[in-house]
Amino acid sequence: MLENTDPEILKINKAEEKRQLETISLIASENYVSPAVREASSSVFTNKYSEGYPDARYYPGNKNVDEIEKLAQKRALELFNLDGSDWAVNVQPYSGSPANFAVYTALLDTRDKALGMALPAGGHLTHGHKVSDSGKYFNFIQYGITDNGVIDYEEVERLAQEHKPKLIVCGTSAYSQILDFARFSTIAKRIDALLMVDMAHIAGLIAGGVHPSPFGYCDIVTTTTHKTLRGPRGAMIFSKGEELSKKIDKAVFPGLQGGPHNQTTLALAVALKEASTPEFKNYAEQITKNAKLLAQELKDKGYDIVSGGTQNHMFLVDMTNKGLSGGESEILLEQNGITANRNTIPNDTRKPMDPSGIRIGTPAVTTRGMKEDEMKIIAGFIDKTLKGEDVCKEVKELALKFPPPGF
């Protein structure tokens, strides 16, 4: 159809498909959805307008929309072993950043204090960084990490006792260790604060049983639906208790959004079903195996791995001892068919647009079926590339042996 309607767009789309097929993505937040999720994402539900919630819409003709939204909610609760009488889930947020902002607008006013992880330590922009609206409109205090590269829980407790925040945010964007939800919960309870967990990066690992679950310890959980969960680009907000869920629902709609993207809800329901299978659990386990081995291989080649290694799907590499910046490393890798993004490292002395580190993750390559042997090969590619060698041909040959689903 595009061939006749818009050949210019078709050409670009085919070029992107070729790029994804022939290159290796090590971007920790990227993944490939299944053919079924892609099919659902382009369904006729994209035609329907559905402001409101199931059984309470502002437009007629939403019987089927209600059904898919309820099904997505049911599958989300079941995937994370949650009792629907205690927990509710909103599946309408357009992405992770609006989901986090919805929680803040639901629970905080501009005078209220909140505690979030600093961006240079591995947190996310929406955890109160000053360039984000979360840091502009709300009174966030930032915590960091120790010299060993792990969260400084003593600092979290000290700041909590000093500032008495109404909300504590536990979540990361570039952190390679297991999160101690129990300790965050203890700190929050001591000051009568609400605990929010942003599990965007690790949702698939939690669903697959290779990372502890936050749900026994917190009040609110936000997550994107792609990354390790391998669904469409969207988000969910889980909340405990009717009072919180009502506030959050109102913050999402009509507070921040209009009609939900129904085709995304449909695709999310498919992805949640896929994530409940034994095959997905095997996938989650392989992600962590691949990440640990890739980090160790690079460490053995003289690369400085922040915090010494990884216990999840990602890790940071400090390129300082190699005489390269993160930006230079990113460019060299992309020129050789490997994508891994530049990233700030703890106590970075360089500017954020060209920091000292790169972030490496294994969700996408694991989806393609790559395992330990391929991680050793990829570590060699990275090393050769950053030493100035050309490995484009070898990278393409490996990528073509492991096509993404549906390619």
Question: Overall mean pLDDT score?
Answer: 97
Helix content: 40-55%
Structural class: alpha/beta
N-to-C terminal Cα separation, in Å? 19 Å
- Count of helix runs: 16
Taking all Cα atoms into account, the compactness measure Rg is 21 Å
Low-confidence stretches: none
Tell me about the biggest sheet?
7 strands, mixed
User: Which percent band covers the strand fraction?
Assistant: 5-15%
Any idea what the shape is?
A: globular
Strand order of the largest sheet: 4-10-9-8-7-5-6
Q: What's the β-strand tally?
A: 15
Overview of the molecule:
The chain contains 16 helices and 15 strands. The chain has 407 residues and is of the alpha/beta class. Helix 8 links the parallel strand 7 (167-171) and strand 8. Helix 4 runs parallel beside helix 11 (262-275) and helix 7 (153-163) runs parallel beside helix 8 (181-190). The longest helix is centred in the C-terminal third of the chain and has 23 residues, at 278-300. The radius of gyration is 21 Å and the shape is globular.
Brief summary:
44% of the residues lie in helices and 14% in strands. The protein is an alpha/beta fold and 407 residues long.
